[in-house]
TrEMBL record:
It comes from Candidatus Merdivivens pullicola. CDD domains: PASTA_Pbp2x-like_2. Keywords: Carboxypeptidase, Hydrolase, Membrane, Protease, Transmembrane, Transmembrane helix. This is Transpeptidase family protein. Coiled coil: none annotated. GO terms for cellular component: plasma membrane.
């Protein structure tokens, strides 16, 4: 008996111990789960919270008001399937389902009806409608559908605004200049602020608003209408200096020259208004890994380097202004050889000439002529020469409208970058760092009779169609040199085209003045001993080039200045400004001449604009010619919607669209006139 009792007692103890171990293990597992995996509901026990209301980002506009970048609001559509009365639900469910199917085109009306009926039966007060966010036009159409037209509390329509979708109507055209804002939610230090979008993000973004939410008994968040709502303040618009037609002409001209050439890395084009410094076009094409050219890097403002022979204009201006030479001054050829500070330089262009003039040396781009002239006149006075170069604003930091300006630099005597051959090198555009934008600004100054203008991209800041702040032209220097010097170098620049290395521009549709330039680019390589080296050519004979043409037109009364720069990859061949950049410049000039009323015929078909992307902002999405509701839109957005649907537009007043004729919803026809009243 005692033995049996002992067995029973042992079994009981075993059960107790096992239970204790089990619950202990369970507790340990629970603790571990809570510490490692559990994420508590931060809103648990919270009765109210604040929700941000996002503003609509401002538009970036071309000089004529056409949008280069616009925002289209997106809305998440949800439904409380319980709140509507039975009679309302039964009477409108079929029409509602049909309308949603036509708008979203993601599933049939029958499936929409089944989804909503099931949700009503299961008391689901928050179901998602559509497989994507709705556009502004779609959201307005949804609000007019049966049941939903009664609103949130009687019809169950729930609209949640999401971040805007940014749309670029002209696709990749000028995209590096227009830019983008890439937000990284994890770290603001990783945010990318590119182009105008980045530089003026603080104006374009606007100010967020807020509204209060409260929690219901079934733990759903709804708007608390008893508390005030702070409406968002939409962003301001940027009116830029960009001319869409000129941008398109420049883009096409550069692509046509480099698109099929494997040895080209990239290139840029800038077109500037001579009198104001306004940038009318800025093209930046770099080669992607897939071999296609795209707007991926801003060469125009960021690519510093040795410009080569286009810099000889600065040397010529200095020599003329200081009275050291005239265009007729003679220089001995010396069979193309000239020595300075123990180094002998060779120039094949002059080897067969006993003597040449300064003008000949400039139009033929002779290195020896300008090395010799600068060194003979400024050895011992190097600082005077360099100071003159700086006075031309060649190294000016413009605080440009797009971030990423390169560091422009010309070394002076005594600096770490100065050597015994710096003076002859600087004379011909080497041993210095200058961006294409800075070179163009200098040539623009010559075209503008010595008046230096700051280059700029933003003409004005607008709000609701009204100018908030006008920016416009800024003078950098009233006169960089005498009018006599200006007239002399203008003659020399015209001769480069008519008789010199700019022969590709002879016969252009208007007279062009300018200068070719060819410069080698430093390349990195590994020598025979495995050491990293750099120089103008690697041991295998590979080198890189920068080919340039910069000038202005028409020569008689300059309207535009422009620069074309083409960058090569490593190659054994040679690239010259006269054969690579000048033909692009010629194509640009000829096409601009045809579109200018005072210069020639209408623009040719080859310079036609790309098709504007269909961005589906129209209200009448069921019929292409249904007149949209434009009330409350800014003028630029209203024009964009109407003109791209084939309507003609007239308007009066300032501000937002207050009324329109004919009214929204009517059936229109191509070419029909729509009248807008702004207020």
């Amino acid at each position: 008996m005692d033995k049996n009792n002992n067995i029973v007692s042992s079994n009981r103890l075993l059960i107790i111990y096992s239970a204790m171990v089990f619950f202990a293990v369970l507790a340990i597992v629970r603790i571990a789960w809570l510490q490692i995996f559990y994420e508590p509901d931060k809103d648990y026990g919270v009765k109210g919270r604040t929700e941000a209301l996002l503003p609509i980002r401002g538009s970036i506009l071309a000089r004529d008001g056409r949008p280069l970048a616009i925002s289209s609001p997106r809305y998440e559509i949800r439904m409380d399937c319980v709140t509507s009365a039975d009679t309302v639900f039964q009477a409108g469910i079929d029409s509602l389902a049909q309308g949603l199917s036509e708008i979203f085109q993601d599933k049939s009306a029958a499936k929409y009806k089944a989804q909503m009926v099931k949700a009503r039966r299961t008391n689901d007060r928050d179901i998602k409608i559509g497989d994507r966010p709705a556009t502004l036009s779609e959201m307005k159409a949804i609000k007019k559908l049966p049941i939903f037209r009664l609103g949130q509390f009687k019809g169950g329509l729930i609209i949640k605004e999401q971040a805007d979708s940014r749309i670029y109507p002209y696709e990749r055209l000028a995209l590096r200049t227009i830019g983008e804002v890439k937000d990284n939610p994890d770290t603001s230090s990783s945010n990318k602020l590119i182009g105008l979008e980045g530089r003026y993000n603080y104006l374009l973004h606007g100010k967020e608003g807020s509204r209060h939410l409260r929690r219901t008994e079934d733990m759903k968040w709804i708007v608390d209408f008893e508390k005030p709502v702070v409406q968002p303040e939409n962003g301001e618009d940027l009116l830029t200096t960009i001319d869409i037609e000129l941008q398109d002409i420049a883009d096409k001209a550069l692509r046509a020259k480099i698109d099929t050439v494997r040895s080209i890395e990239g290139g840029c084009v800038i077109i500037m208004d001579v009198k104001t410094g306004a940038i009318r076009a800025m093209v930046n094409l770099g080669r992607r890994k897939n071999g296609k050219f795209d707007e991926i890097y801003n060469y125009a403002i960021g690519q510093v380097g040795e410009p080569g022979s286009v810099f000889k204009l600065a040397s010529l201006v200095t020599l003329l202004e200081d009275g050291k030479v005239t265009l007729d001054t003679k220089i001995k050829g010396n069979r193309g050889r000239w020595s300075y500070n123990g180094r002998t330089f060779y120039d094949e262009y002059i080897r067969n000439n006993e003597e040449v003039s300064v003008l000949w040396g400039f139009m033929k781009s002779s290195n020896q002529v300008f090395r010799q002239l600068v060194c003979e006149n400024y050895t011992g006075h190097e600082k005077e020469y360099v100071d003159k170069l700086y006075s031309y604003k060649l190294c000016e930091k413009f605080n440009f409208d797009v971030k990423g300006e390169g560091y422009n630099f010309i070394p002076g005597p005594g600096s770490a970058n100065w050597s015994g051959t710096s003076l002859p090198s600087i004379a011909i555009g080497y041993n210095i760092n200058i961006t294409p934008l800075n070179i163009l600004t200098f040539y623009n100054t010559i075209a503008n009779d010595g008046k230096a203008m700051k280059p700029y991209l933003v003409e004005a800041i607008e709000k609701d169609g009204k100018v908030v702040k006008r920016l416009g032209p800024t003078v950098l220097s009233g006169k960089i040199c005498s009018q006599k010097t200006i007239d002399t170098v203008k003659k020399a620049l015209r001769t480069v085209v008519s008789e010199g290395t700019g022969s590709a521009l002879r016969g252009a549709k208007c007279n062009v003045s300018g200068k070719t330039g060819t410069a080698r680019i430093i390349v990195d390589y590994t020598d025979a001993n495995g050491k990293r080296r750099s120089g103008y050519e690697d041991p295998q004979g590979y080198k890189r080039h920068q080919a340039t043409f910069v000038g202005f037109f028409p020569s008689e009364e300059p309207v535009y200045s422009a620069i074309v720069v083409v960058y090569s990859k490593k190659t054994r061949g040679n690239f010259y400004g006269g054969s690579w950049a000048a033909p692009v410049f010629r194509e640009i000039v000829d096409n601009i001449c045809t579109m200018m009323p005072d210069w020639g015929e209408k623009i040719e078909a080859s310079a036609s604009l790309p098709q504007v992307e269909d961005i589906h902002l129209d209200i009448g999405q069921f019929d292409d010619y249904t007149i949209p509701d434009l009330t409350g839109l800014g003028l630029s957005d209203a024009l964009y919607l109407l003109e791209n649907r084939g309507f003609k537009v007239s308007y009066s007043g300032e501000g937002l669209v207050a009324s329109q004729t004919p009214p929204a919803g009517e059936q229109g026809s191509p070419g029909q006139l729509i009248k807008l009243e702004l207020d």
